[in-house]
Design brief:
Structural class: mainly beta
Shape: globular
Number of strands: 10
Largest sheet: 8 strands, antiparallel
Strand content: 35-45%
Order of helices and strands: EEHEEEEEHEEE
Radius of gyration: 15 Å
Helix content: 10-25%
Number of helices: 2
Strand order of the largest sheet: 3-4-6-5-7-2-1-10
């Protein structure tokens, strides 16, 4: 089995690297890898950041416009009938969605604290590989925010994803 690592490179030079676990969420990992390799995430922002909870990105540009055009994937989590045992601990990456279980497309979030109440309800699919990566997510969660239209917790100064790279390693 291959191991997959994604590095989220920010325009300000910081980065976060996560190891993805296809044995827990194969469709979610496949979707994230496909989007990253097609450069879908280039230029998008972390558009929702909440200290002590998570940072969310992968769906909006700095002007809060969306790219769209994606087909939703199956929600790979316990409450949706999938045996995904990953916990939402500090540094876990998971798919964002609406209240519809199979509505995830491109948006993801990284937990900046253990948030176990999300376990079984969201498709966790990886974890930050080191303290540096986790620290970047926590730093992002603490920036000043504002409301833009009906979007809350939007960073005052955009935190832009330059690109997301993916590396495969054989076990």
């Amino acid at each position: 089995m291959k191991r997959y690592f994604a590095t989220i490179h920010l325009e300000d030079g910081r980065k976060m690297t996560v190891e993805m676990f296809p044995e827990q969420a194969p469709e979610t990992v496949r979707n994230f890898v496909k989007l990253a390799r097609s450069r879908y995430y280039d230029g998008m922002i972390f558009h929702r950041v909440i200290p002590g909870f998570m940072v969310q990105g992968g769906g909006m540009y700095p002007d809060m416009d969306t790219k769209g055009g994606l087909t939703p994937i199956i929600g790979e989590f316990k409450d949706n009938g999938i045996n995904n045992t990953l916990r939402h601990t500090l540094g876990t990456i998971s798919m964002a969605r609406t209240n519809v279980p199979n509505s995830a497309t491109s948006q993801f979030f990284i937990c900046v604290k253990d948030v176990f109440f999300l376990d079984g309800q969201y498709a966790a699919f990886g974890r930050c590989v080191d303290k540096e990566s986790t620290d970047v997510a926590v730093e992002i969660s603490k920036v000043a925010t504002r409301t833009v239209g009906w979007y809350e917790n939007v960073p005052v100064y955009p935190i832009v994803i330059k690109t997301v790279t993916v590396e495969e390693k054989d076990e």
